[in-house]
Amino acid sequence: MGKLSNIVIGLALGAGIGVVINYLFGPVREAEFNPHYRSRWDQAIEEGQQAAADHEAELRRQFADAKRSQ
Q1: Residue 40 burial class via C-beta count within 10 angstroms: exposed 0-12, middle 13-18, buried 19 and up
Q2: For residues 35 and 23, what is the distance between their CA atoms, to the nearest angstrom?
Q3: SS3 of residue 27 by DSSP
């Protein structure tokens, strides 16, 4: 491959990586830039933490029920 093709490949990869980073850390739709700003990444982390807390509460309830039935 020649130098020109390496440059074109590098530019394409750089643009693709830039798009992915912008998507992950950019604002969510209809976001206003204020103190409550959240990126998609922040929103995904918060949703994951909420799902983990819900799952933990369900497991604790199941454990308590199993303990009572013994």
Answers
A1: middle
A2: 20
A3: strand
